[in-house]
Amino acid sequence: MRIAIEGCMHGDLDTVYKTLQFAERKNGFKIDLLLCCGDFQVFFFFFFHCSSFKISAFESTEICFQRYPVAVRNEEDLQSLNVPPKYRSMNSFWKYYSGEEVAPYPTIFIGGNHEASNYSWELYYGGWAAPNIYFLGFAGVVKFGNIRIGGLSGIYNSRDYHLGHYERPPYNEKTIRSVYHVREYDVHKLMQVEEPIDIFLSHDWPVGITDYGKWEELVRRKPYFEKEIQERTLGSVAAAQLLENLKPPYWFSAHLHCKFSALVQHKEGTLTKFLALDKCLPGRPFLQVLEIESEPGPHEIQYDEEWLAITRRFNSIFPLTRRNATFGSVDLETEDCRQWVRSRLQARGTKPFEFVQTVPCYNPSQSGSKGSFSGYPRNPQTESFLQFLGLPYLLDCMSEPKDLSYSPASSNQRVVSSATLFTLVLFSIAASASSANLSFNFYAASCPTAEFIVRNTVRSASSDDPTIPGKLLRLLFHDCFVEGCDASVLLRGNGTEQSDPANKSVGGFSVIDSAKRVLEFFCPGTVSCADIVALAARDAVEAAGGPSFQIPTGRRDGMVSAASNVRPNIVDTSFSVDEMIKLFSSKGLSLEDLVTLSGAHTIGAAHCNAFSDRFQEDSKGKLKLLDKSLDRNYADELMKKCRAGASPSATVNNDPETAFMFDNQYYRNLQAHKGLFQSDSVLLNDNRTRKQVEDFAVDQVAFLESWGQSFLKLTTIGVKTGEAGEIRRSCPTTNM
Asked: Where is this site: Transition state stabilizer (predicted)?
């Protein structure tokens, strides 16, 4: 199979198609497919020029002809195109849209930062933009024959990355630019792809890709790139993480209007051949033809089963306002969804739904008239696609959510916006952050993508394993309560904190190590392991459906880790309220913090021996209940799961109701006498803590507000800053 790849289309479909037809005649072969890396509908004006291209191992070829740019369907679309008004003009795309012209090759394209965004939004999930011209959507995977092609539309902007898709046509001066910024939701879906991708398309380059090619030559041609390369801001952080995760054999990009090749060797030994191509201008390398092994043709564009299953699973959390998605609420069971999609495809077939015009085409005889059309219709392709997957149509939804969506809301819960929570948290801890020499956005200059990298690592790991958030949260407690929040719990070796039996069941280390490896690649020797642990715990709560807020950073890593310091400094599950108050007070935490932070047990799991003191083994080897305060039915469930002689690895969820959701169910469980640990149950029985338990049980928002404040106090316990400690190169070992 021969696949042509084009850089920035910039509206020159006619030019590109004629160039490929010339190449076919000159070299005696056939092009099967054209891929375009974005900026599909932009147009510029040149009267005559020569175009150059490369055909695999064949010689470079030059051809000169009139340039006929393409742009939009009609004059309404011009209002949704981010180019200066003086350049907005109808050209020839309307001929392809109307069917007057037909693309001579199947064409697949992604969006860049210069498309008619109203039309792209109609086809958010992908679909035919014109006959034989297929848009991959904001993110997507399709098959062409047996070749899997994935893509991510748009360009990366850190300010908008964590927002939802809140922009709707008609766009204003701001949203016409932000609408094409890559969003975490779309990247997160692509991160779920497990089956091999053969070719991946992105408009902007993965950040750091220059390390794998001749960047010195690139800088000689583009000297203004050097500063961005050194600062690791040239390109997309999101694309870099997708490259690391997907590892496709081929990756093509555009955007920077120059040719650059690189060869990425992944740690598993696999290779990715990266190529960025130029825009369609005289004498510029904007085309490449790739020969790739494939099944015999004829080939056609088809839906991809795995991608449809991912789309179906994640559509319920599609973020349609400025708020990001709550990934922790996604059902992680994939096999049932795959089987359901497979049966639907077997019944209907894999061909995409047919192209349908949704607006009147431009009529050159009525130039200057916008016709009778007004408004932004639903695209029948998208409607049919969603009906096929059993999903609702959400693209014209505008309303803000009515609740926090952490768990099913009860009628007596107050509603508070995340912005209110964020402001409250910042105000309440400003003094403590300052006194500890921590600061917000500590890495803004030295490693601006630090928090993004940690967050994405946590979310990816949590998607694969729903127990990860609970493990990361427990890891933070076991770190901060011993030597302060200094990552001493991560140090390995004889006699370290990890060697104490109380830490044998602590987990989440691999997630921290993974984030550290990526950070060392992008920002060597800059981000501390202590900050990674704190950020990962914060992001774990959000991944499980809890609140999102900022925390100060600037912690440094400790150099001391002793097993003997563990037991005197952590809560034992058999503790009384008095014992917990004494310990928490020694860490600068209040009684209210004690009750609030105990709410961490709304997620996570415990080994059976952690609550075995509530039962006793009788002479027949069976367990009987000792603690009569425990609900009898709940006790019976626990004794079934943790029979006498049960495996030491057997675990029970801390929260028997909503085990993987960060909500206020923990306090409801206490009221129902279903606290897993003795240290949980005593909070309901003690007059000093009962009222707060009862309040949180009926008011989730009150708990979440309090959680933000107490969590921030927790993460500032005994921090090392300034010249104290070090920034470890590897979290399990000191630099000495």
From this structure: 474
497 known member of a binding site: yes
Which value, in Å, is the radius of gyration of the alpha carbons in the chain? 29
CA–CA distance, 593 with 584 (Å, rounded to integer): 8
Q: Given phi > 0 = left and psi -120 to 50 = alpha, else beta, which region is 316?
A: alpha
Q: Tell me, yes or no, if 181 is annotated catalytic.
A: no
Span 75-131, pLDDT tens digits: 565 455 555 554 444 455 667 888 888 999 999 999 988 777 888 899 999 999 999
Q: Over 80: is that where the pLDDT of 54 sits?
A: no
**Can you tell me which residue has the tokens 């603690």?**
627
Other CB atoms within 10 A of residue 290 CB: 17
> 449-604+654-715: which CATH topology?
Peroxidase; domain 1 (1.10.520)
* pLDDT at position 707: 96
The response to whether 733 counts as a known ligand-binding position is no
Contact indicator for 8, 258 with CB cutoff of 8 Å: no
pLDDT digits (tens, 9 = 90+) for 207-226: 999 999 999 999 998 998 99
Report the run of H or E that residue 470 belongs to, with start and end: helix 468-483
pLDDT greater than 90 at residue 525: yes
Residue 457 zone, left/alpha/beta (φ > 0; ψ -120 to 50; rest): alpha
Cα separation of 508 and 288, whole Å? 44
Indicate the pLDDT class of residue 341, thresholds 50, 70 and 90: very high
Domain ranges in the chain are: 2-51+62-364, 449-604+654-715
pLDDT mean over 44-68: 37
Instruction: Pick the catalytic residue from 10, 181, 188, 478.
Output: 478
Stated as kind and residue range, the H or E segment containing 271 is: strand 271-276
Q: Is 210 annotated as contributing to ligand binding?
A: no
Any known ligand binding at 484? yes
Structure tokens given for 544: 């499980």
Classify domain 2-51+62-364 at the CATH topology level: Purple Acid Phosphatase; chain A, domain 2 (3.60.21)
Looking at residue 316, what is its pLDDT? 87
Residues 526-542: tens digit of each pLDDT: 999 999 999 999 999 99
